[in-house]
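By way of example, we now present a protein record of this kind:
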Amino acid sequence: MRRKKIEFSKRIMFCVLLTYFIGVAVGTYVVIKSNDQLSPYLVFLGSATSIAISCYSFKAKGENVERIKRGEVPHEDEDSGSDNNY
């Protein structure tokens, strides 16, 4: 039996998310120790989250446009990153 190869972009996304969650853990510890660090912590959380979501949505949109042009219809069970309600 052959294993499915993990796409490069998914590996990169995993590494970015891992780094993000490590930053969240360290940031939470720092905020618990010093409340005046809450504002920079919230900026870190908000900016990283919004950038990641917007970039991934843009990537998924591009992939879906190409699939539709080729005549393929994305299905719910695929990792398309969108709602798929036409």
About this structure: The longest helix spans residues 38-70. The mean pLDDT is 79. Helices lie at 8-33, 38-70. Residues 35-71 form one domain.
